[in-house]
TrEMBL record:
Residues 1-30 are annotated as: Disordered. Pfam families: Catalase, Catalase-rel, DJ-1_PfpI. This is Catalase. It comes from Apodospora peruviana. The lineage of its organism: Eukaryota, Fungi, Dikarya, Ascomycota, Pezizomycotina. The keyword rRNA-binding does not apply. SMART domains: Catalase. One of its GO terms (molecular function) is heme binding. Its EC number is 1.11.1.6.
Length: 729
């Protein structure tokens, strides 16, 4: 890879201001000219041979005295640090945050009020359960952690892509995580909730009901980090200049809409391309398709805390948007990939307790525990000086009397290391100087291990979520539950879980019972209240009708139609999507008439249909003959169809596609008209015999591309599922 930083990258680095400049101080570039040295700076003459005793042509023993060799090996032996106890698998990027509407009515934090500011951020996305080397596309909650490097200090929103959590009180975190992680006797399964212990815990712990429904929904298998929402989950508070306090929840909503993989595809990708999400994010940023999210706040005045039928401090509950609308006030853009994974993505350390003046906590019992946990875990993961690491250090001055500890970097001058001191050195700030002021909340009560009455209601919002799903999403939840419980060998686990589902919806419980075994419940312990709310179904977030940043495969073999190929390639690129040419080999493939030679990006074995969003096949007699005879090529098309992806074909490829997927509804007339069915878009005639033919075909071709791109922009063709033979609720 080139060591040069591109112009575009430099522009972004400039825009990110302080944090990029700050990091640049520590950034080393591998250069051709610099000579290899030890860590203590002495140049080495070889990196290949351990110092040893040699005589004539005989190799003698290695000498322990070799400091170069020992340094290399011992340094290497200690390269690993403990992985995160949860959220070990992740990827990150730099970006910027701006507010376009000041929230000064509710907070005085400049990061949320100053519309002229650009705050540098680092975002880390993650899965919760898997180890560092696990696959990206597993069914799991995704972490969405944002560090804002503000002028007033670092602010971390350590969120997820699901707005609720399994537990209400932090004390239970070790239990829920132990139950979900691989089982203790054999460390199986990796990065899965489909096992006895997870579902045993869910049954025994009713407050998790709402959350596991989200976990079984498509939210848990996102198409891309760029296409998922983020939620702060916990209830925080905002303080304004008048001293008024509001409760707040934070939300990120992606510009591209909220989209998911289909389950079969997610399963396959886990083996075929375990880094799928990581690469997707990096690729988009590299190509300048910077992902963006709107930043929103839901705000409740302090006086209204008890006005709802749920407790607003309960992290197993959403604040339904029909009751408390989201106010979108800002925008996040990710625009720079990391320079080095370990020192940036791995060493970044988030703490929910890191807030800036104008932002505060609530008594949400999950948040209170988190505020303890994150700082604590960084001590064991990175050590007491973790905040001095380049990726973690604030862009504003840090000045205090915390001192020493392992790996201390800062060299503090002066004779005093305490406050107060005889020089009045380094005094605390006043509120006017920007000092953090705790809100003077009146607190009274008895000491007890208890929760408020509303915390004890565990099913109403699970029903609300279920009721709000589209038909397709309901089917996916049903199938996900059927899959997960099928992986539980202990009948006690799946039989009881089936009963639990009746607390949400009787029909759902009965359908799952039929699939997984276990007695189907005859009646619901509590009726479904029938209420729905907005913005829970992903269909409320379709995103713009665009193919931007989507991967579109073009399947070719020798003898492909060069005109159809070329126009599709150009149109895909013009739409800022990524054309990926797939052929029988990654060596030259020649078009019909020998007019064009193409070197495919990948071959059929190396790259799979799961890795793209849509497939286009240009005609060409020989090319289509070759593809028709090739099992892998046929599988490509069938699999893309099975995963509900748009398929486009022209000329001879139309018959190939029709035969391969044997779709009865597709009819193709000889007039060269465009026919669209189930997201399969075809154009039979592309070779004109006359001028009037050419005009007609040109019209048809335009219509073809529009229709094909329209089908891609829909993300998936859900009719292919609904009209099939799926078990349905
Ligand atoms: Fe975390 N969580 N968590 N969590 N969490 C960690 O901190 C914890 C919870 C979340 O990319 C740990 O640095 C407790 C909710 C993300 O580096 C640890 C409780 C939400 C990340 C920890 C929760 C999250 C973590 C492990 C219950 C969504 C990855 C490594 C009270 C709002 C951050 C680390 C990154 C990581 C504790 C629940 C999100 C152990 C005790 C709810 C995105 O401190």
């Amino acid at each position: 890879m080139s060591n040069l930083v591109s112009k575009a990258q430099k522009a972004v680095m400039g825009a990110q201001g302080d944090k990029s400049n700050d990091l640049a101080k520590e950034t080393k570039q591998v250069t051709k000219d610099a000579r290899l040295t030890t860590d203590y700076g002495v140049k080495q003459t070889t990196a290949d041979d351990w110092l040893r005793v040699v005589s004539e042509d005989k190799i003698g023993p290695a000498l322990l005295e070799d400091p170069f060799a020992r340094e290399r090996i011992m340094r290497f032996d200690h390269e690993r640090i403990p992985e995160r106890v949860v959220h070990a698998r992740g990827t990150g990027a730099f970006g910027t945050f701006r507010v376009f509407e000041s929230a000064e009515d509710v907070t005085f934090a400049p990061v949320l009020t100053d519309t002229s500011r650009e705050t540098p951020v680092f975002v880390r996305f993650s899965t919760v359960l898997g180890s560092r080397g696990s696959a990206d596309t597993v069914r799991d909650v995704r972490g969405f952690a944002v560090k804002f490097y503000t002028q007033e200090g670092n602010w971390d929103i350590v969120g997820n892509n699901i707005p609720v959590f399994f537990i209400q009180d932090a004390i239970k975190f070790p239990d829920v995580i132990h139950a979900a992680k691989p089982e203790p006797q054999n460390e199986v399964p990796q990065a899965q909730t489909a096992h006895n212990n997870f579902w045993d815990f869910q049954f025994n712990h009713t407050e998790a009901t709402h959350m596991f429904m989200w976990g079984m929904s498509d939210r848990a298998i996102p198409r891309s980090y760029r296409m998922m929402q983020g939620f702060g989950v916990n209830t925080f508070t905002l303080l304004n200049a008048k001293g008024e306090r509001h409760f707040v929840k934070f939300t990120w909503t992606p510009e591209l809409g909220v989209h998911s993989l289909v389950w079969d595809e997610a399963l396959k990708l886990a083996g075929q391309d375990p880094d799928f999400h990581r690469k997707d994010l990096g690729e988009a940023i590299e190509n300048g398709a910077y992902p963006k999210w709107k930043f929103g706040i839901q705000v409740i005045p302090e006086a209204d805390e008890h006005k709802f039928d749920f407790d607003i401090l309960d992290a197993t509950k959403i604040w339904p948007e029909d009751l408390i609308p989201i106010r979108y006030i800002g925008e996040l853009e990710l625009n720079r990939n990391v320079d080095e994974f370990f020192t940036q993505t791995e060493q970044i350390a988030f703490c929910t307790s890191h807030v800036v003046p104008g932002i505060g906590f609530s008594n949400d019992p999950l948040l209170q525990g988190r505020n303890f946990s994150y700082f604590d875990t960084q001590l064991s993961r990175l050590g007491v000086n973790f905040q001095e690491l380049p990726i973690n250090r604030p862009v504003c001055p840090v000045m205090n009397f915390n001192r020493d500890g392992a790996m201390r970097h800062t060299i503090s001058r002066g004779t005093v290391n305490y406050w107060p001191n005889r020089f009045d050195a380094n005094p605390p700030a006043t509120a006017q100087e920007g000092g953090y002021i705790e809100y003077a909340e009146k607190v009274a009560g008895i000491k007890a291990r208890a929760r408020s009455a509303k915390f004890k209601e565990h099913f109403a919002q699970a029903q609300l979520f279920w009721n709000s799903m589209s038909k397709v999403e309901k089917n996916h939840i049903l199938n996900a539950l059927a899959f997960e419980l099928d992986h539980c060998e202990d009948p006690v686990v799946y039989e009881r879980m089936v009963q639990r589902l009746a607390d949400i919806d009787l029909g759902l419980a009965q359908s799952v019972a039929e699939m997984v075994g276990g007695e189907a419940p005859k009646e619901a312990p509590r009726p479904n209240h029938g209420r729905k709310t907005i913005n829970l179904t992903q269909t409320d977030f379709p995103g713009p009708l665009t193919i931007k940043s989507r991967r579109i495969a073009i399947l070719i073999a020798d003898g492909f139609d060069p005109v159809a190929y070329q126009s599709a390639y150009a149109a895909i690129s013009a739409g800022m999507a990524i054309p990926m040419v797939i052929g029988p080999r990654r060596a030259k493939v020649v078009s019909a008439g020998n007019v064009k030679t193409v070197t495919p990006h990948h071959h059929f074995e190396g790259f799979r249909s799961t890795m793209v969003d849509a497939v286009f096949i240009p005609g060409g007699v020989d090319s289509i003959r070759a593809l028709s005879m090739n099992g892998r090529a046929q599988h490509w098309v069938r699999e893309a169809f099975g995963h509900l992806k748009a398929i486009g074909a022209t000329g001879e490829a139309v018959d190939f596609v029709n035969k391969t997927i044997a779709l009865p509804a597709v009819t193709v007339s000889d007039a060269g008209e465009v026919h669209e069915s189930y997201g399969v878009v075809t154009l039979k005639h592309v070779q004109p015999d006359s001028f009037s033919d050419a005009v007609e075909i040109a019209k048809g071709a335009k219509g073809f591309m529009e229709n094909f791109f329209h089908a891609i922009a829909q993300h998936r063709n859900w009719d292919r599922e609904l009209d099939g033979l799926h078990t349905q609720v």
